């Protein structure tokens, strides 16, 4: 009766069971890269993205939802980038007199534009795309044709976790 309340450790069995459980490999396709399709680029950020539906996303998201999301990003760019271009031209004209300080406003405005696009994409992710197993983000990539950097929209596929596997 004295052994009734004692607790024994089962270290050997637990260690074998934990060692035999390996995480399952999760296969995710390559992310879809949406490059800028506009004719004006300010500090790597193009003035618009193409609304053409990529064939890789067929069956994942409706073409209408995709076009709506890209149109929202394009509307944000259309609102902010003309101001950035005007400040860039003004900054370039006054650059010699101000020792480069006249370019600070356009750098700050470009950063604000990027942040607003990132917030918009996070809102879209929380609203729709995380439920569909996708994640949209603004990412900096090297241009294919030159050594310059550009901002692209990356559409990543989230890994599917096996929910029917016991703990």
Automatic annotation (TrEMBL):
Name of the protein: Golgin subfamily A member 7/ERF4 domain-containing protein
Domain named Golgin subfamily A member 7/ERF4: residues: 47-136
Residues passing through the membrane, by range: 87-107
GO cellular component, one term: membrane
Domain of life, source organism: Eukaryota
Keywords: Membrane, Transmembrane, Transmembrane helix
PANTHER family for the chain: CYSTEINE-RICH HYDROPHOBIC DOMAIN PROTEIN BRAIN X-LINKED PROTEIN, CYSTEINE-RICH HYDROPHOBIC DOMAIN-CONTAINING PROTEIN 1
Residue stretches in coiled coil: none
Cell location: Membrane
């Amino acid at each position: 009766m004295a052994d009734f309340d004692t607790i024994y450790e089962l270290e050997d069995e637990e260690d074998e069971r934990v060692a035999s459980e390996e995480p399952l490999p999760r296969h995710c396709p390559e992310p879809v890269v949406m490059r800028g399709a506009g004719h004006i680029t300010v500090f790597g950020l193009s003035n618009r993205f193409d609304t053409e539906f990529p064939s890789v996303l067929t069956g994942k998201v409706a073409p209408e939802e995709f076009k709506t999301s890209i149109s929202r990003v394009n509307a944000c760019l259309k609102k902010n980038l003309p101001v950035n271009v005007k400040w860039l031209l003004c900054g370039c004209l006054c650059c010699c007199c101000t020792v480069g300080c006249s370019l600070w406003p356009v750098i700050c405005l470009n950063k604000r534009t990027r942040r607003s696009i990132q917030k918009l994409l996070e809102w879209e992710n929380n609203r729709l795309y995380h439920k569909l197993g996708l994640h949209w983000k603004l990412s900096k990539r090297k241009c294919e044709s030159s050594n310059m950097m550009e901002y692209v929209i990356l559409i990543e596929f989230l890994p599917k976790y096996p929910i029917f596997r016991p703990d």
